[in-house]
Structures are given as C-alpha cells and as structure tokens.
Specification:
It catalyses: 6-phospho-D-glucono-1,5-lactone + H2O = 6-phospho-D-gluconate + H(+). By secondary structure, this protein is of the alpha/beta class. It contains seven helices and ten strands. The structure holds 6-phosphogluconic acid. 6-phosphogluconic acid (6PG) binds next to loops.
C-alpha cells in the first residue's frame, strides 16, 4: 500500500518521512515551534505526550530543542497504573528520554499515584490535573493497531464517558486488552482542547489501521476517529 493509494480527507495534514530518525527530527522541530509560539504569546505552554514504543527518539530530539523549558508543563496523555520505576511506566519513559539536559527544567504532572483502587488513582490524577490551564498547546498522540489512542481502548469500561465532549472528568480509569491492563487516560475534552495535535505512526500495519478509520465514524469502535480532523498533523514512516 502506498500513501497515495488512500484518499485522505483534505483537512488532514499527512507527512510521509523517509525513516524513523527523520520523522523524530521533523516532529521535534514542529512541536518546538508550536511550544515557543505559545510561550511567546502567553508566557507558558503545556505539552501532552503519549507513551509506548514509538516516541523515545522524538522525545530525545525534542529535548535538544532550544526552548524555555522552565516555562513548560509536560503531561502524559495516559499512564499504565504502575510506579514510575516500572519498565512500563510512561512517566518513566518521559523522564528517561524527554526530561533530560535543559529539558529537566520543565514541570512534569504525572498521572500515577499509589491508591487503594484503580478508580481512586484516577480521582487523584483528576485532582492533580485540576490546575492545568486549558487549552493545552500541543498534543502528541500515538495509535494502536486497534485504533486506540492514549488509553482510549475500544470496549473498555468508561470509554463512552471518556469520549463524551462534556465529560466532567479530566482523567478516567480504563482497561487495556493487554498487560498492564489498568490504565489512566486523559479524557476527550482535555485532549481535544489542544491548539496543535500531531499523530505519530510507523509501519504499514498502522497505515492500514488509519485507512480503516476512514471507513466509519464511530469513535467507540476506533477512538482515534475522535481526532481525525483539523488541526491534526499525521507523521508517518515505514
Ligand atoms: O501508553 C501508551 O501505550 C500510549 O499512550 C498508547 O496510546 C500508544 O501511543 C499506542 O499504544 C501506540 O504505541 P506504540 O508506539 O508502542 O506502537
């Protein structure tokens, strides 16, 4: 399948990059421009990033960007309900690959806190996010081959609530199909408030998933559909 074989909606900015390194650099430069513009306009900026295997190289390129990091707040789009020292922790991923060098000066608002229950943990994360000024400035999403994004998983309890544009919560507990199953996710109102949204994808399987999203509109089946509209920018390489 080639990029040109898919009739992408004209409003989606689709960038095909030569390889993963070129993609990471292009995304880092784009995100840095948007964050610096936000800082110049409002004195501060908020960046929400996804976890998983894809973003490490992008994080490392972004960490090298000449930004006023002390004016930045970084928030995970979702979290596995594991401590930051756990190998699956998104907070750990961000701290290892993004909050390094000068970028260590950024403020980080993590979602994980120990709690008596998954729901209690989500309420603690909700409280931690209460002070976050909206709209967020930059959102960077990934996508699973099932069409999930953040931890908005098809079939998860709370998915309808999390996708509700009027959801009163900023963070909800979710269940992933694979381990670690217990997740915490930012909800649609918070995620969709972003002034700029980038989607990072790699490989033909995810391109096929993205193509499949165009065949329907129900975000409960493929939650990434809730973001497939302007101002989304898609960055893809094989
Ligand atoms: O915590 C997570 O895993 C992410 O937030 C999740 O939404 C991720 O972006 C996709 O699952 C893609 O993950 P990969 O980059 O590992 O394919």
């Amino acid at each position: 399948m080639s990029i040109d074989s898919v009739a992408w909606p004209a409003e989606l900015a689709f960038h095909e990059l030569a390889d993963a390194e070129t993609l990471a650099t292009a995304m880092a430069q784009r995100v840095a421009r948007a964050l610096q513009a936000a800082i110049e306009a409002r004195g501060r900026a908020t960046l929400v990033v996804s976890g998983g295997r894809s973003p490490a190289a992008f994080f490392e390129c972004l960490a090298e960007q000449p930004l006023e990091w002390e004016r930045l707040t970084v928030v995970p789009a979702d979290e596995r309900w594991v401590p930051p020292g756990h190998p699956d922790s998104n907070a750990g991923l961000v701290r290892r690959h993004l909050l390094r060098g000068r970028a260590v000066q950024a403020r980080f608002v993590g979602l994980y806190q120990p709690a008596d229950s998954h729901e209690a943990a989500a309420r603690l994360a909700d409280a931690a996010l209460a002070g976050l000024s909206l709209p967020i400035d930059v959102l960077v999403l990934g996508m699973g081959e099932d069409g999930h994004t953040a931890s908005l998983f098809p079939g998860s309890p709370n998915l309808d609530a999390a996708l509700d544009p009027a959801c009163p919560r900023r963070c909800l507990p979710m269940l992933a199909p694979g381990e670690p199953r217990r997740r915490l996710t930012l909800t649609l109102p918070l995620l969709a408030s972003a002034r700029s949204t980038l989607l990072q994808l790699q490989g033909d399987a995810k391109l096929a998933t993205l193509r499949a999203t165009l065949a329907g509109e129900d975000a409960r089946q493929m939650p990434i559909r809730a973001f497939l509209h302007s101002p989304l920018e898609i960055y893809w390489c094989r």
